[in-house]
User: Which sequence fits this backbone?
């Protein structure tokens, strides 16, 4: 694993057990994610995209194989260590936005900084992140007062506010219309291009694939294809 | 770290289901109010019984001969009762001190007889310290210093002996050197309202008691304090000043029946309060658990973002504290006026009891007043916060066990 490799998965399997039934979600995934990647993980439903993202995001544990995230051996990391890794180094964007409904956009962003132990400057930092992403109009709005697209953009702001090394987005555009999806993807691409943030996105959405520089295709819990491609240019659209 | 955003999150979380929050707060408030009422009643009844016991002759403290607690022998005398009395009167916080001597005897008038406890008293001290004397209806007069050959008896005793004022009774009692007899003229008849007390009441002056029994001096000194709550401290201080051979005991030793009564009442009331608090805790725990289940995805998200278990617990505890504070306020709004009424109007048992009630020679008050004061605020806060925090423990534990991946996947 060289210094630009953020994630290294080797023969990773994941088996879920429901009573007597064993579901093989991943059947030996070998994969590397590098610093600065803007990678889309695609595949049909049940192919293991979300499972892989959960494992990389330290939300779940591998059944076998070796998984290293940001230099941490995930098989050796405890609950607390995983929470710490998520807090300090990972950013999450969820399909259903999952902003805290009783907090404003700024407070949602600030909340993560507060969890990180950032002191008084967290309020200004949250405001700065929202401004940088062009979301200053939403600062004092609560999620129920925002559209889905706006909520997802605030969710991205929340994910990047803590300056993570890796942002994981699970079907980020699944609930968005074409225009909002495009705005969101441009925002992510520009963060990737300008700040060097690494993004890994699981998706069905061809619009996401169009923006990705790397597409990993999962089929039946295995990597079927891993290809680099020329993404559509941010300023093309 | 729990900071201002976490607090905002917890506070606003309470308003998500306002109706449920209000019902929870009212539930806590009613529990607190019941607790306050019970505590007020318990405090008032306890104070009344202690006051009644101490003012019916026992005193808050009693200086007695060392052997008395074990033998209860009334022929025992203090080593130096005058010196002991002076020491008692010098003690800060002492309201009154009354020396006494007792002897078991027989009164006879004509062919009628009655067993009595002949009590030698200092008349002025007795009038001031003993409610059996001070509150009773008196026919004739009470004793005066220097009285000799006279007695004041209870109304029921006078009735049993078929005597009246100025009649001469024969008293027979066990003296220092055997059975002694003497004549006593009745100068006063006391009616306490309690037949039990009136039947055995026979007072003479302390010097007269010495003459009758041949045992000079006092057998006890009853001590009334300004504040009965300082009884143990005062006992220790006074005990250090007593000559060897004398002891200082509390009203509980003198009146074990009343002490047992107080303990029984206290335990029962605490049990009732405990049941109420348990019911409140279960109710709030159920509501809190529903909140946690509803917000399981949210907790999953927060944990995915890196929130630690103790921070999740802190969030729920903040909500519990807020519910507790609101519950305490509601409890005070309901319980405050009710306990104030209990404290000012009291509950009158005189009709129910058909007159005065005495237990173990203690003349109880027919009206029981509740206790009222700033303690109600601390009580409301204590009970309410204890209940809501206890109620939050299981839901918090449940929330901490949330598997973020599972919560995000299934909810």
Assistant:
């Amino acid at each position: 694993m060289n210094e630009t490799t953020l994630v290294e998965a080797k023969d990773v399997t994941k088996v879920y057990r429901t009573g007597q039934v064993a579901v093989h979600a991943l059947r030996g995934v070998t994969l590397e994610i590098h610093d600065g990647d803007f990678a889309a993980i695609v595949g049909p439903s049940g192919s293991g995209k979300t499972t892989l993202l959960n494992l990389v995001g330290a939300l779940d544990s591998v059944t076998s194989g070796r998984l290293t995230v940001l230099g941490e051996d995930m098989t050796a990391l405890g609950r607390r260590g995983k929470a710490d890794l998520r807090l300090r180094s990972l950013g999450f964007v969820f399909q259903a936005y999952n902003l805290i409904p009783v907090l404003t956009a700024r407070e949602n962003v600030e909340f993560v900084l507060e969890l990180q132990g950032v002191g008084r400057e967290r309020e200004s930092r949250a405001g700065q992140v929202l401004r940088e992403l062009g979301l200053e109009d939403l600062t004092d709005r609560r999620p129920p007062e925002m559209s889905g697209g706006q909520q997802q953009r605030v969710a991205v702001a929340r994910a990047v506010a803590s300056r993570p090394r890796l942002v994981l987005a699970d079907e980020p555009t699944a609930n968005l219309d074409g225009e909002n999806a495009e705005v969101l993807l441009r925002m992510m691409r520009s963060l990737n291009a300008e700040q060097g943030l690494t993004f890994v996105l699981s998706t069905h959405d061809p619009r996401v694939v169009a923006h990705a520089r790397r597409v990993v295709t999962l089929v039946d819990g295995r990597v079927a294809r891993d290809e680099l491609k020329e993404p559509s240019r941010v300023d093309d659209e | 770290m729990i900071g201002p955003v976490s607090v905002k999150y917890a506070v606003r979380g309470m308003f998500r289901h306002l109706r449920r929050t209000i019902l929870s707060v009212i539930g806590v408030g009613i529990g607190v109010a019941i607790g306050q009422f019970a505590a007020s009643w318990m405090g008032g009844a306890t104070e009344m019984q202690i006051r009644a016991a101490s003012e019916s002759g026992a005193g808050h403290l009693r200086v007695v001969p060392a052997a008395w607690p074990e033998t209860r022998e009334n022929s025992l005398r203090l080593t130096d009762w005058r010196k002991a009395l002076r020491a008692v009167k010098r003690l800060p916080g002492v309201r009154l001190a009354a020396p006494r001597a007792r002897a078991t005897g027989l009164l006879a008038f004509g062919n009628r007889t009655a067993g009595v406890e002949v009590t030698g008293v200092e008349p002025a001290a007795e009038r001031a310290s003993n409610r059996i004397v001070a509150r009773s209806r008196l026919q004739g007069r009470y004793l005066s210093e220097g009285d000799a050959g006279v007695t004041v008896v209870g109304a029921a005793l006078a009735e049993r002996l078929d005597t009246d004022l100025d009649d001469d009774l024969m008293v027979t009692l066990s003296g220092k050197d055997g059975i002694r007899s003497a004549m006593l003229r009745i100068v006063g008849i006391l009616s306490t309202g309690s037949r039990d007390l009136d039947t055995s009441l026979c007072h003479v002056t302390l010097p007269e008691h010495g003459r009758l029994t041949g045992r000079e001096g006092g057998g006890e000194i009853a001590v009334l304090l300004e504040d009965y709550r300082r009884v143990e401290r005062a006992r220790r201080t006074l005990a250090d000043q007593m000559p060897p051979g004398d002891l200082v005991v509390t009203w509980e030793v003198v009146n074990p029946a009343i002490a047992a009564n107080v303990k029984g009442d206290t335990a029962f009331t605490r049990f009732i309060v405990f049941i109420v608090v348990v019911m409140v805790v279960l109710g709030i725990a159920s509501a809190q658990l529903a909140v946690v289940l509803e917000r399981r995805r949210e907790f999953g998200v927060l944990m995915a973002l890196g929130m630690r278990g103790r921070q999740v617990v802190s969030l729920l505890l903040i909500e519990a504290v807020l519910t507790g504070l609101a519950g305490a306020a509601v409890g005070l709004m309901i319980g405050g006026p009710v306990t104030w009424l209990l404290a000012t109007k009291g509950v009158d048992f005189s009709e129910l009891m058909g007159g005065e009630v005495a237990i173990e020679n203690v003349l109880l008050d027919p009206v029981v007043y509740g206790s009222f004061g700033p303690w109600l605020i601390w009580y409301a806060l204590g009970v309410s916060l204890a209940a809501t925090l206890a109620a939050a423990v299981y839901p918090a534990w449940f929330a901490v066990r949330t598997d973020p991946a599972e919560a995000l996947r299934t909810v």
Q: What stands out?
A: Chain A has a mean pLDDT of 90. Residues 5-228 of chain A form a domain with the Rossmann fold fold (CATH 3.40.50.300).
